[in-house]
Amino acid sequence: MSEPATPVTGNLLVADDVRKEFGGLIAVNDLEFTIPERSLVSLIGPNGAGKTTFFNMLTGLYRATSGTITFDGQDVTDRPPHAITKLGVGRTFQNIRLFPQMTALENVLVGMHSRLKGGILGSILGLPRVRREEREATEKARELLQFAGLRRVDEELAESLAYGDQRRLEVARALATEPKLLLLDEPTAGMNPQETVTFMDFVDKLREQRQLAILLIEHDMKVVMGISERVTVLDYGEKIAEGTPKEIQTDERVIEAYLGKAATT
Amino acid sequence: MPRRRDRARTSARAYRSELVQRSGLRAAGTYWDRLPGPVRTFAPALALLALAATYPFYLANLPGNFPVINEFPSVRSAVTIIVFTTMAVGLNVVVGYCGLLDLGYVAFYAIGAYTAGWLASGQFQQVKLHFGSVGITHDARGIHISIWLVLMCAAALTAMGGILIGLPTLRLRGDYLAIVTLGFGEIIPQFVRNADSLHGFDLTHGTFGISPIDAPGFGETLHRRVGLPASYQQEFNADRLFFWTALALLLLTIFCCIRLRDSRLGRAWIAIREDETAAGAMGIPLMRTKTWAYAIGAFFGGAAGAYVASFNQGAFPSQFNFNISVFLLCMVILGGMGSIWGVVIAGVILSWLNVEGLANIGTWLNNNVFPSGHNIEVAKYQFGIYGVVIVLMMMFRPQGLIPERRRKRELEEGSHGPLDEPVYELRGGDEPGAGERGEPKGPVPRG
């Protein structure tokens, strides 16, 4: 059943003692995590720290072994992915998962699925209501592509886009779900430093213009330091540090996790 | 590499345009280009439709001993061909759009046919219910409902059957789903074969099947007023009427499938086919959307099944073999998964081979190619031949006869725009991770 109300703190998402076990392996160990409204927080950690597992629990892809996740005042722990998306959580994937044989435009339109109503009979009969909705959705999808900095690719198949454009398209598609919270899973993976900088500028612009909360997962600390308000560090499924980027940079346990024990002594 | 290919393509294009210019085709071409868009879109389809619809009229004038194929299919065979094509178009929704491998489509055919049997025959002697039925005596016992209504009931009932089968199975993915649908495809014919005594109640009449099933028709009133046929079976040209009705059914199915493909639901199906996990994360309710695909595929399968039962005047368990499922799947694969026109063409070709073609080709081969005394019954090797065809298709043209629009675009290189504009540059190898994703084919636009 849904939790009574959003906590007073104005947290959009609250993860309470969330735990995920795969067989004997504890991937995420009783993690406490909150995302305040309209904030940009980051989750970092070395490979295999449990970042993506946690992410997948937030989006309903995995079911938490224990603990609860509350989004926008509602318990979403055991909800399927599409229901969580409908509540307002958009996401991208670590290794791009576009619909390769659909055009860029269609990819974005798929993202709008939960916001459109057109039913089977309406579509077959071509009712004016459905036609109008489709037209408006297409218009909006084009705007989103523009916003994401994708020009002249509307009719290109997603798989034929350049790598950086595919990343942008994933964001555009996630934005099409009209999220309140956008989860970006290592969005700059595979980008060169120049592309990374451009992309992070885009993320910054995104938050300002769309008034979203953004959760960024990164593996590379440098990327998130500039723009995050709060950084949480995971290692072996446990939160080892949390604070402003400055605090994190000097935290001993973080340095240890990233560089090994020898680096701290 | 691509540079050289570009040049080759440009010169090929120049050569082609020269050819066009030299022949009178150019004039025709410009005339064609000047026609309004809708005409250009629909004219070929309409011409084809007209050719198909008038088939019974010119069939008699077609040469009787055509090389290889011997003769053109009779109108009666053409009905079967069209009905099977309709089923293939329905299956295409499940397999081609939504990417769900369904090896038990024959179950829907069976449900449709038996619904017609229950609602339009003397199967249930205990009751007497007539509603708009034609061609039967007034005191005939059993349920006799107008075939037009029966078609709708059968479609609806089969769609419900699809949902019932779908709910437990569609959680499975890929191969597992295929196996379970295979199971259902076997269960239903077995059930109808054995449901002649359910606690003493005869539901399906066992191996004998339900027969006779009423024919379609418009009744005496409409016959007198508008001249529509009262009952197909009593008409002199019954086969022609069945042919045109089947054609209408096929057109309706194609129309619905095209509309659905271009709708919100169709996009969701294709998204699921492309990447189920991502589709779910983008807000598509997976179970519901897949169940809809299943139900709609079943809907058309059921309608076609009921129609063919009325055409054959009976529903018999021996019709519903696993072969049929595979056969329909072959049509979808051969035509190009997801491509309606491809499936229609492959459906027509394969069902023609099945009904008449193979036998005709066999006769021709025996008469003209093989030495006399070494007759081979080609029709016996039917499934071997289909198997070879599918293997060859997978090797040389995996996208099907007429690939689905998006697949075709993927294979066409010139789709990026004019070649002489230097907007496009070759994709560099500077991005890490490019290798594992596979190099894109051809030039890629750069913003």
Structural class of chain A: alpha/beta
Question: Which shape of chain A, going by the Cα principal axes?
Answer: globular
Looking at the overall shape, the CATH architecture of the largest domain in chain A is: 3-Layer(aba) Sandwich
Low-confidence stretches of chain B: 410-447
Instruction: Summarize the helix and strand pattern of chain A as letters.
Output: EEEHEEHEHHHHEHEHEEHH
Mean pLDDT of chain B: 82
What is the oligomer described by this structure? heterodimer
H/I helix tally of chain A: 10
What pair of chains forms the biggest interface?
Answer: A-B, 59 and 46 residues
Describe this structure in words.
The complex is a heterodimer of chains A (265) and B (447). Chain A is 38% helix and 24% strand. Chain A folds into two domains: 1-88 and 179-265, Rossmann fold, CATH 3.40.50; 102-173, no CATH class. In chain A, the strands form two sheets. Chain A has a six-stranded mixed β-sheet with strand order 6-7-8-3-9-10, with helices on both faces. In chain A, strands 2-1-4-5 form a four-stranded antiparallel β-sheet, with helices on one face. Chain A is built from ten helices and ten strands. With 265 residues, chain A is of the alpha/beta class. In chain A, helix 3 packs across helix 5 (128-147), helix 3 runs parallel beside helix 6 (163-176) and helix 5 packs across helix 6 (163-176). Chain B is mainly alpha-helical and 447 residues long. Chain B has a domain at 74-319. Chain B is 62% helix and 2% strand. Chain B is built from 18 helices and three strands. Chain B has helices spanning 2-22, 25-34, 37-53, 55-58, 75-97, 106-119, 147-169, 174-194, 219-226, 238-261, 264-274, 276-281, 286-312, 322-335, 340-368, 382-396, 405-411, 434-437, and strands spanning 120-121, 128-131, 142-145. In chain B, strands 1-3-2 form a three-stranded mixed β-sheet. The longest helix of chain B has 29 residues, at 340-368. The model of chain B is unreliable at 410-447 (pLDDT under 50). The interface between A and B is large, with 59 and 46 residues.
